[in-house]
Amino acid sequence: MEQGAGNSADGDVLIVTAVEAERNALLRGLGNGSPFDVLAGGVGPAAAAASAAARMARRRYRLAICAGIGGGFPGRAEVGMLVVADEVAAADLGAEAPEGFLPLERLGFGSSRIRTDAERSDRLAEALRGAGLPVVVGPVLTVSCATGTAETAKARAMRVPGAAAEAMEGFGVAVAAQNMGIPFLEIRAVSNPVGPRNRGAWKIEAALERLAEAGAVIREVFG
Ligand SMILES: O=C(O)c1cccc(C(=O)CC[C@H]2O[C@@H](n3cnc4c(=O)[nH]cnc43)[C@H](O)[C@@H]2O)c1
Predict the structure, then answer these.
(1) Span from the CA of 124 to the centroid of ligand 1 (angstroms)
(2) Which NCBIfam families match (predicted)?
(3) Torsions phi, psi of 212, nearest 5?
(4) Dist CA 193 CA 62 (whole Å)
(5) Which residues does the chain have with pLDDT short of 50?
(6) Protein residue whose Cα sits closest to atom 16 of ligand 1
(7) pTM (predicted TM-score)
(8) What is the reported pLDDT for 173?
(9) Does 206 contact ligand 1 (Cβ within 6 A)?
(10) 159 Cα: distance to centroid of ligand 1 (angstroms)
(11) pLDDT at 1
(12) Domain ranges in the chain?
């Protein structure tokens, strides 16, 4: 089999977005007749985990991808860029304490971070670069509450050194994939900077177009 080609005998590829607009953008790029099951699973880690787990219980998948738009950490991933996660981090899952935020690790409840499949992430990033798309590889934070101030942006970036992007579903899909023993990837098209909330300035259409371009590359690599 040619390098990068999938084997549909091993199952399809599940792609989980938050909303229909993201799903439609990916479907534009993926085209018809591909072994991709693209699901708009809802906003936030709980909805994403529940939707992904329900799908995974019904069918066998060879790969799970969380995809959508996201916030980019300034200096790491600017608006219009793509971020391929090398790990996902549940950045607001834990406890507040007088001395600061305590992640799951400090509470003795396991890990707040999940590594993505390194070989497939590298292959995807390389193919995106080959297609002339601007791509950064780094940690993608999963949050239940989107960052809206410079202080929170700074605190979250410090919590996860090298943080490239922030979104709201990745950790949920990653936990579902981990439980099923399926390799996991996350890709985000940056629509806004992580920082003071300015929803009117989000470049959603441009990010969705970027996501569609990424979809075409995902089809080449994993189709
Ligand atoms: O209003 C629209 O037309 C529209 C079209 C597509 C997507 C949206 C969303 O609002 C998607 C929500 C989704 O986006 C992720 N996201 C984007 N930026 C951030 C951020 O700065 N911090 C956290 N999450 C972000 C997130 O995964 C949401 O589920 C609207």
Answers:
(1) 22
(2) fut_nucase (TIGR03664), PRK08236.1 (NF006087)
(3) -65, -40
(4) 33
(5) 1-6
(6) 70
(7) 0.95
(8) 99
(9) no
(10) 22
(11) 28
(12) 8-222
